[in-house]
Amino acid sequence: MKVQEIIRKIEEIAPKDLACYPEDNNGLLIGSYSADVSKVLLALDLTSDVLDEAIKLNCQLIVTHHPFIFKGLKNIRDDMEQGRLIIKGIKNNINVYCAHTNLDVVDLGVTEALRKKLEFPKGTVLHPTEKEGLSKLVVYVPKENAHDLLLVISKAGAGHIGRYSHCSFMTEGEGTFKPLEGSNPYIGKVGSIEKVQEIKLETIVPNKILSSVIKMMIKAHPYEEVAYDIIPLNNTGKVFGLGSVIELEEPIKVKELAEKVKEKLHCQGVKIFSRDLDKKISKVAICGGSGGSLIQEAKFAGCQCLITGDIDYHKGQMAVDLGLTVIDAGHYYTEVPVLEHLRELVNDKLEDVEVYVTKVNTCPYIFL
Ligand SMILES: [Zn+2]
C-alpha cells in the first residue's frame, strides 16, 4: 500500500482535522505520500532506538503519537539529535506520520485504550472539543430501488445513530416528472408526464461526510437527475474530546484503585495526590498523557479521582485542595495502551501490510 492509503485508513479512525490545538503538528512529517509500504511500526515517540528498530524490521513507515517535528526547524544537521534522526530516516527510506491530539479526542483513541486497559465501564467525554454537525438527507427513489440505495448510503456513513446503523424512514407516494428534449429517462418517455410510485427515504448524515455520501447516492441512484434535499439539523452527533468520566460498578478505596492502575498499566510506580488513601471512589475521570488541565473539570463532573499523567507539585496541590484525588501513572504509561489498540484497529483495514508495536520503552525516566 502507498503511504497515502495507509494515512487515509488511520484518519478514518482519527480524522486529522479533529486535532484540538491549531499549532499541533499531525500528519506526514517525513517522507512521501507515494512511497510503498509493507511494514508499519507504531510508537509513542520517534527516538533513536525506535528508528533502529524500524530499520531492523524493514518498516517503511513509523506512526507516532507525539509529533517528532513540532516547531519550525532552523537546520537539519547530523551533529544534532533531531537532524541526525531525520537524515538517517530519509537515508533508510523511512516515512514518519503523526496522529497526536486527533488520536486523543476520538472515541476510539487514547482514552478508550486506557479505559479498556483499566477494565473500566464505558463513560462520557470529560472535556468536549468538538461536536459533530448533522444534516438530514431526503431522497426520492423508485420503490424497487429504495432498499439497495439505503445499503449504499449506509455503507458510505449515512444513517448511523449511536450503536445503530441503517437508520432511515421511508414513506411511499407518487412522484411526477416530464423528461425534456435531450434527456435519457430511466422510466417514461421524452415529452410526456410520468407518474411513478416512489419512496421518500430520509436519513441522517454527519456534515463531514455529506459530499461523499451524496456522490455515492447519485452514482447508485437509477435516475439521470436525482431529486434530494439536504436539511441542516440542530441535533449534534458524536462528541469528541479529552478524557472520560466513568461510574465504577463498585466503589473502591483510593489505595486499591492506585494498586490496580499500577498493575494494569505495568508502571513502576504511581504518584497519589490525596490526604486519604481509604476514601471510597465511585466516579473517576481518566485521561491519557498530561491531564493536569482537567483537574477542575473532573471535580465539577462529580468525580472523586482523576487518573492521568504529568501532574506537577502545584497542580497536585490544587487537586488536593479541591478534594479530588489524582493518581499520576505517568504520561507514557497512560498513553502506551493506544499502540496495541491502534494496531488492532488498523490491522483489519490494511491489506498486505504488517503492523508492529515498538518494543522500545520511550518513557524518559525510571523509578529508583
Ligand atoms: Zn502524550
From TrEMBL:
Coiled coil: none
Gene Ontology MF, one: metal ion binding
Keywords: Metal-binding
Binding site for a divalent metal cation: H65, H66, D104, H331, E335
Pfam families assigned to the protein according to its UniProt record, in alphabetical order: DUF34_NIF3
Superkingdom of the organism of origin: Bacteria
One term under GO cellular component: cytoplasm
Family indicated by similarity: Belongs to the GTP cyclohydrolase I type 2/NIF3 family.
PANTHER family found in the cross-reference section: GTP CYCLOHYDROLASE 1 TYPE 2 HOMOLOG (PTHR13799:SF14), NGG1 INTERACTING FACTOR 3 (PTHR13799)
The protein's name: GTP cyclohydrolase 1 type 2 homolog
Organism: Anaerobranca gottschalkii DSM 13577
